[in-house]
Amino acid sequence: MSRVLALWCPDWPAVAAAAVADLPATSPVAVVSANRVIACSAPARAHGVRRGLRKREAQARCPDVYVVTADSDRDGRMFEPVAAAVDMVAPGVEVLRPGLLILGARGVSRYFGSEHNAAERLIDQAAAAGVECQIGIADELSTAVIAARHAVIVPRGGGARYLAPLPVSELAAEPSLAAADREELIDLLRRLGLRTIGDFAALTPGDVASRFGTDAVLAHRSARGEAERPPSARALPPDLNVEYQCDPPIDRVDAAAFAGRGMAEKLHTKLAAAAVACTRLLVHASTGNGENLSRTWRCAEPLTPEGTADRVRWQLDGWLTGRSVAKPTSGITMLRLEPVEVVAAGELQLGLWGSVGDEEERARRALVRVQGLLGGDSVKIGVLSGGRGPGDRVTLRSLGDELVPLSDPAAPWPGRLPAPAPAAVMDTSPRVTLEDANGNDVHVGMRGSFDTRPATLRWGSKAWPLRGWAGPWPIDERWWDPTVGTQGARVQVLVEETRALLLLYGDDGWRVEGIYE
User: Fold this and answer.
1) Based on the number of CB atoms within 10 Å of its own CB, is 451 exposed (0-12), middle (13-18) or buried (19 or more)?
2) pLDDT digit string (tens) for 219-263?
3) Number of Cβ within a 10 Å radius of residue 411
């Protein structure tokens, strides 16, 4: 029976960020994405910082915390020296993600005499590269990864027995081995009373398959200590490799990433033609001085073009700018992507328009990137709130913050604007003029009605004859507080067959509050 060794570097995003900033190991560090903490160092946890906290709350708990935005490129670049150091004494390293790698335990344990000796030697090797790590060894990959988080060597055949008392949340602790919605599965299992991995493993495979989805079946196999994904028996179709001759040689990360993205698209075109998808990818580079660099990336799910491009960029970034002893001494003259393991193309879910992957997650990643460049308040999400006007019924929250409305939308709101709501709510509320048939301004009197019949609406240089209107509806909010009280009226006017406007009347005249399309 083959054994798997997993090497895990705790809090890797925080460790990489501290290394880039040249901070001592005692400095508290928090890595944020979408305005929430996704990783933090041990000193930060000692001050109460936890994953999931908002940025401001983390800073309140630990004023000295060094806050940095999540950067997958930085994580990959800083992890390459660690992978290279381990690969020097234990060839065959496969990277699951920056901060976590695996390799076959048989060869390295026989070379160093035992699995315990091999674990100690690899820990020393990682320490020489400047990082702390933990080792886990087990019969199956997922069990070895969980064991690494607890620094345990699981006896042969004892995977299910080791996993049984652990909380069921351990099955979702490692994102590189779980589907994106694994947390929802764990939450459901808890609500069903299945608190430990052993409770979940006690269910029959038939019950799991009939009640839950495909990812639950894979999690159940992990819980039972069974093979999640057996070695691929599918023969690799010919001519799947993608090779790129770099002329001139590439010595900059941006140029390498650009080439890698084009290669990723070509690779997936070939994979699609062969009706397969890649789950293990070898990235190989040759330099002008004859140096050959290679690294294998393993993925829990079939790679998408974006996932392939990300891993190629991380790897090239690590080779060209990292502190690895394998850093090339000249520019890269050849790049090659080689699928090592493939599965049937049915494992890869195509999007509605032919794209691959979760469109919502891709959009979120792009917005988080914008947030990292422009600040936490640069991306906001609208939340339905309570109120009488259309602007009052929208609360803007920063991406990553809790989507809590400013007021309860389900509460009664006497005088609320009747349906339908405007298609667009004006942020600046431009001024307009209502005129009667003689060109005189139309106002709303003390009784809440027009003082004369409106006939024309003027907006800048445009003038529209009114086809009809509804209202006015008087507004008299917070009359007991003159400093914040609002008085006026709202009117819906039809200016074209397919366009209507919502007007707001106040002390400064008429303004456009919304547009109906």
Assistant:
1) middle
2) 898 999 887 654 443 456 668 889 989 888 888 878 888 888 888
3) 8
Residue 371 clears pLDDT 60, i.e. is over it? yes
Q: Which helix (H) or strand (E) holds 141?
A: helix 141-149
Contact 398, 382 (CB under 8 A): no
Q: Which residues contact 457 (CB under 8 A, 6 or more apart)?
A: 432, 433, 434, 435, 463, 464, 466, 493, 495, 501
Q: 25: which DSSP letter?
A: T
Please report the DSSP string for 272-306 in residue order.
Answer: HHTTEEEEEEEEEEEETTS-EEEEEEE-SSPPPHH
Q: How long is the chain?
A: 517
- The string of pLDDT tens digits covering residues 453-464 is 888 888 888 888
- pLDDT at position 387 over 80: no
Q: Is the predicted pLDDT of residue 326 greater than 70, yes or no?
A: no
Q: From CA 480, how far away is CA 308, in angstroms rounded?
A: 62
Residues ≥6 apart with Cβ < 8 Å to 18: 25, 27, 29, 41, 66
Mean pLDDT of 338-350: 68
Distance between CA 348 and CA 55 in Å, rounded? 36
Closest C-alpha among 7, 49, 8 to residue 32: 49
Provide the CATH number for the domain formed by 242-347 in this structure. Answer: 3.30.1490.100
Q: Are 130 and 217 in contact (CB under 8 A)?
A: no
Cα of 492 vs its chain's centroid, Å: 42
**Cis previous bond, 420, omega within 30:** yes
Distance CA 439, CA 443 (A): 13
* Helix (H), strand (E) at residue 341: strand 332-344
| Sign of the Cα pseudo-torsion (104, 107, 111, 112, in order) | positive
Q: Indicate where the chain has its CATH 3.40.1170.60 domain(s).
A: 4-72+109-154
Query: Residues 48, 85: contact at Cβ < 8 Å?
Result: no
CATH code 3.30.1490.100 region(s) in the chain: 242-347
CB 188 within 8 A of CB 216: no
The CATH classification of domain 4-72+109-154, taken from the options 3.30.565.10, 3.90.1170.30, 3.40.50.1370, 3.40.1170.60: 3.40.1170.60
Q: What percent of the chain has pLDDT over 90?
A: 25
Tokens representing 302 are 């079939």
The secondary element (H helix, E strand) that includes residue 32 is strand 29-33
How many angstroms separate the Cα of 266 from the Cα of each of 187, 269, 317, 336, 384?
A: 39, 5, 21, 11, 44
For residue 376, what pLDDT is reported? 63
- The tokens for 165 are 């008392």
Can you give the pLDDT at residue 369?
64
Q: Tens digits of per-residue pLDDT, 160-179?
A: 999 999 999 999 888 888 87
